[in-house]
Amino acid sequence: MNPDPLSFIFLDAAIINNFVLAAFLGICPFLGVSAKLKTAVPMGFAVIFVMTVAAVCTYAVNQLLVYLDVPYLRIIAYIAVIASTVQLVEMVIKKFSETLFRALGIFLPLITTNCAIMGMALFATAREYGFMQTVVYGVGAGVGFMLALVLMAGLREQLELSDVPSVARGAALTLLIAGILSMAFMGFAGLGS
Amino acid sequence: MSAEASKQTPSMDTFLKGLWRQNPVFIFLLGMCPVLAVTNTVINSLAMGIATTFVLFMSTFIVSCIRKIVPKEVRIPTFIVIIATFVTMVEYAIQAISLELYDNLGAFIALIVVNCLIMGRAEAFASKNSLGRTMLDALGMGVGFTFALLCLGVVREILGSGTFMGIELFGEHFQPWAIMILPPGAFLVLAGWLLVFAWWAERQQRRQAAVEEEAVT
Question: Is A79–B29 a contact, with Cβ atoms under 8 angstroms apart?
Fold first, then answer.
């Protein structure tokens, strides 16, 4: 059992060790979906939601794996659980809110291969978090992902209008901005310790 | 190049395209998480590259073998289970070979399972092509991925700690550029490489245009 208080776990996942900018998890959707704020915000919410559900599920699965003493099945079990969680979430959202389902549409299936979810589950296991700690860690990680995504989308929308040298246009510029954002987030290092 | 003719027989091009023209990292920006996360030293980059290549090769090999007996509806879960099996093998193998390396790479060995490069090749190539072509493609992509990791790893280790594979390069007066081995350095070095390649491509284009213009006049 890990003694960290819940508030610290949340801050640690969301800001101090931001999942995208400090731990390099979920880079693909971060680069892919950050072109427009209009898509970045629903994607952020979808990730927070899936993260929370996946945190609960993987915690339960890990308890089962420990009980059965089969740690070598962890990767297979986690990826199966995350993939089915995403499927489940997709079905539930479709049932309850057609509008939300249409807004999230293509992003939901993409979350399965978002390494931030898998990373969150593995880190939570490695740090031996309890149930509440795992859930808070999942929510914090989702919030951190959304924070980075929305910041980036806002910056990229502004850049659309600016005059950029043709060599730097596209991925190179996005990565440069990500580097600067990452430097800014390094300022939070040491917070809470 | 005619796409139809090259679809049937394995050729050198299937292998070579992954190295440069369709490089998974520099051209397609696939599998970025390990590229940024573990490239703070050359050794880590090389180990990650080899581990990913192994998983990529073995899982696309199996996918290509069973591509005709797996029903379309369940192919994605099947691929995931195959990939996860090889990732588990690699994880235990690295732990057995070097505990230090295992600690350095951390969760990113297990995260090979969600590397979109592997899923992408399994889905887009191995499930549609013959065994020979799949093997060449996987090797090419794997080597291209390792090459990209090394590009970052070499720059970051030399600038960030003044060493190459742990060997001191500059003597004691060298002030290491610490930001390079920290997270921002990864983004900046990759952006730098992309800028160099974009500049190179643009120059090639300009030269070709100049040559063509000369030919016309």
Answer: no
Q: What is the pTM of this model?
A: 0.87
User: Which are the contacts of B110, defined by CB distance < 8 A and separation ≥ 6?
Assistant: A74, A75, A118, A122, B87, B91
Minimal C-alpha gap between B112 and chain A (Å):
9
- Helix (H), strand (E), coil (C) string for B20-86: CCCCCCCCCCCCHHHHHHCCCCHHHHHHHHHHHHHHHHHHHHHHHHCCCCCCHHHHHHHHHHHHHHH
Residue B145 counted as domain residue: yes
CA distance B72 to chain A (A): 17
B168 — phi, psi (to 5°)? -65, 130
The pLDDT score that the predictor gives to residue A112 is: 67
**Cβ neighbours for A64, distance < 8 A, ≥ 6 positions apart:** none
On chain A, the residues whose CB falls within 8 A of the CB of B84 are: 75-76, 79-80
- pLDDT category at B13 given cuts 50, 70, 90 is confident
Beta strands of A38-174 (E only): which ranges? none
What is the extent of the structural domain holding B123? Answer: 12-166+177-216
Strand partners, B163: B168
pLDDT tens string B53-93: 999 999 999 999 998 898 888 888 888 889 999 999 999 99
C-alpha–C-alpha distance, residues B57 and B139, integer Å: 6
Distance from CA of B189 to the nearest CA of A (A): 9
In a domain, B6, yes or no: no
- What lies within 8 Å, CB to CB, of A181 at 6+ separation is A21, A148, A151, A152, A155
What is the ipTM, given to two decimal places? 0.85
What is the pLDDT averaged over residues A177-192? 86
A26 in reach of chain B (CB within 8 A): yes
Q: Decide: A150 and A41 in contact? Cβ < 8 Å.
A: yes
Q: Determine the residue among B118, B187, B193, B202 to mutate to test chain A binding: the one whose Cβ has the most chain A Cβ atoms within 10 Å.
A: B187
Q: Is residue B192 part of a domain?
A: yes
pLDDT per position as a tens digit, B158-196: 988 888 887 887 777 788 888 888 889 999 999 999 999
- Decide if B5 is inside a domain: no
Chain B residues within an 8 Å CB radius of A123 = 107
Domain count, chain B: 1
